[in-house]
Amino acid sequence: MVEILSTEPILIRFGVLSSKRRALSRTGLNNSNTSVCVPFYSRRSDAPAPTSHIMKSLLLIIFLLAVIPSVHAQQLGLITNTDGRKTISLDGQWQAIIDPYESGYYDYRYQPSTNGYFKDEKPKTKSDLIEYDFDKSPTLKVPGDWNTQSDQLLFYEGTVWYKKSFDYQRKPNTRLFVYFGAANYATDVYLNGEKLGQHEGGFTAFNFEITTLVRDTGNFLIVKVDNKRRRDAVPTLMTDWWNYGGITREVKLVETPATFVQDYSIQLQKGSRDRISGWVKLSGDKLNQQVTIRIPEAAISRSFTTDATGTAAINFTADLKLWSPENPKLYDVAIDTETDQVHDQIGFRSIETRGTDILLNGKPIFLRGICIHEEAPFRGGRAYSREDAQTLLRWAKELGVNFVRLAHYPHNEWMVREADKMGIMVWSEIPVYWTILWENPATLQNARNQVTEMIARDRNRASVIIWSMANETPLSDARLSFLRKLIEHARSLDAGRLLSAAMERHYTDDHTQMIDDPLGEYLDVLGCNEYVGWYDGLPDKADRLEWKTKYQKPVVMSEFGGDALYGHHGDALTRWTEEYQENLYRHQLDMLKRISFLRGTAPWILMDFRSPRRPLPYIQDFHNRKGLISDRGERKKAFYVMQQYYRELERLGK
Ligand code: GCB
Fold first, then answer.
1. Residue 498 binned pLDDT confidence (cut-offs 50, 70, 90)
2. 435 Cα–ligand 1 center, Å
3. Taking burial as the number of CB atoms within 10 A of a residue's CB, which of 102, 202, 596, 632 is the most buried?
């Protein structure tokens, strides 16, 4: 039996609210991580230096035995569908130490310390000098951003160390992983004083194998999370959302058989409505196995054999009810191997484009959408729970949508799981936002890794129809080359979905907007952000605008809108009033209806959200107020304008 015991004696919360390296990939995705890990094991020998040759060889063997399994473990990618497995939650209160100078990591010469906070040392004698103590430190809730858990941390950007203790009885022939839904932004993970690895990127999941490190009792997991913004990071220094730091999504132990189904892709083949194709990938020692895909409700059971790498290609015909917003049918799909079994709920649908049309299951559709940030309704801060996802998506449904743009980074898994169930199509994107360091190879590698991790988690979700590569990035050769590489990478991982980006457009004269961004050539769907009536003239400017495109491709207006403080009233030309926003939406919709190649709209945004760029007192108070709904859940007037438009489209069968 798996048992988990907390050994935390003291729980002091951070001044509880008044109102309430760059390893570019998850450890194992590139070899640099291996070299990161080795010194931690070598440093372990605090014992006197061995003198004899035999002793040295013996130590070398012991060292290799210790290192090899964990290096092997770190070469594993993300485990998909962790909810389909046996897991033990590590959520709850974690002890935390705020460390703005990173003195738990660097010594006073700014060299990585061999004896940092990750060792969780305790004084052994009364004279020992140790300047930290997790067990007497306050706690932070996981999952949760730190900013909204303590007044002291609202604007904090830096390092916080987290500690969680647990016991665990390992069973024979099993493996154990620690899985993080996300931590923003750079994360170093240690178990029992040993480094497991690092992860960079604030919105994607990662895991480390701990099979050989975990012990029956007294495990301590220490996690250093650093949310300092960096020019070379993804996103970079400037964004229009709050830089919520911390372990923002769930943490869990995932128990698997020694050889298990690590990842799979099961979906209709591109362009087909009755042929399923994909692959299953095993991890472990028994890589040559028979794999059976079963869809009991459709009386399907098909077997395949994995190759020496543990991968089996799958391909078979199936007569299935297709997933759509009107009928979001999900099938129970079982993947059986000789050593493992995993279940998932998968919807089957085809998505493609033809000329300026987007086709779902072969039929042209219009994306009645809304943009959403991962911000929690009512309580504020990062959203992370199923309830948060349900509230946001229900509001979106009430607006009349069949589509959501999840801005500006991959959201938590509940969002796409719930969207699958509710029949809402999803655009998911990575935070390649505004002014990324296009020339820097490490930045590109980081962005590629975020694409990999986004796709790895959600490739089996029917709701996800679009992967978006970038948002409002200024034209340059370096940017085009960077984004082309990302696009190529995304296509190599998932040939079935549509690729997009929110692009800029420009005026060719006072009343003509032109879509001719060279990036458009490489995308399937052209996202376009415009703020006519807000940053660009007054609302009636929209009446005089014509839209043109260079491409025979579907265009989605991926952003438009303006700010209004809920309950603030005035005439239709007074900024920040609900009436101004309502008027802006009316003019926008009149304009949008005139664009012949438009195949979707996703106004900015469902709900007001925090932004450090928005200080205006009494109006913004550090919030972007472009929500159709306030952060307290109140519908603004413009909500009903948009709702009426979407209801009309729905009535027309669009
Ligand atoms: C944009 C950005 C979005 C901002 C929005 C705004 O173009 O894509 O992240 O929040 O404008 O409100 O200015």
1. very high
2. 13
3. 202
What are the tens digits of pLDDT across the range 15-64? 444 333 323 232 222 322 322 222 222 222 333 333 344 444 444 444 34
Query: Any idea which fold 352-651 has?
Result: TIM Barrel (3.20.20)
CB of 609 sitting under 6 A from ligand 1: no
Which is nearest to 604 in space by CA: 640, 559, 644? 559
Ligand 1 pocket residue status of 579, Cβ below 6 Å: no
Given the DSSP bridges, would you call strands 186-191 and 194-200 parallel, antiparallel or unpaired? antiparallel
pLDDT digits (tens, 9 = 90+) for 53-107: 444 444 444 434 433 333 333 457 999 999 999 999 999 999 999 999 999 999 9
- The tokens for 162 are 């987290």
- Whether residue 530 has its Cβ less than 6 Å from ligand 1: no
Closest ligand 1 atom to the C-alpha of 626?
12
Which of 435, 576, 604 has most ligand 1 atoms within 8 Å of its beta carbon, as the pocket-test mutant?
604
Query: Which sequence spans correspond to the domains of the chain?
Result: 10-73, 82-257, 271-349, 352-651
Question: Does domain 82-257 sit in CATH 2.60.120.260?
Answer: yes
Strand partners, 261: 282
Find out if CATH 3.30.200.20 is the number for domain 271-349.
no
Residue 512 pairs in a beta bridge with 509, 546
Does any ligand 1 atom lie closer than 6 A to the CB of residue 405? no
Ligand 1 lined by 240 (C-beta under 6 Å): yes
CA of 609 to the centre of ligand 1 (A): 11
Does 529 contact ligand 1 (Cβ within 6 A)?
yes
- End-to-end, the C-alpha distance of the chain in Å comes to 53
Q: Which of 559, 575, 625 is the pocket-test mutation for ligand 1 (most atoms within 8 Å of CB)?
A: 559
| Beta-sheet pairing, 555-559 with 609-610 | unpaired
Which pairing describes strands 251-257 and 219-226: parallel, antiparallel, or unpaired? Answer: unpaired
Q: Torsion angle, CA of 637/639/642/645, rounded to 10 degrees?
A: -80
User: Given a cut of 70, is residue 174 above it in pLDDT?
Assistant: yes
What is the spatial distance between Cα 424 and Cα 584, in angstroms, rounded to a whole number? 26
Q: What is the pLDDT of residue 46?
A: 30
Cα(240) to centroid of ligand 1, in Å? 6
CA 456 to ligand 1 centroid distance, Å = 27
**pTM of this prediction?**
0.90
Whole-number Å distance between alpha carbons of 355 and 484: 21
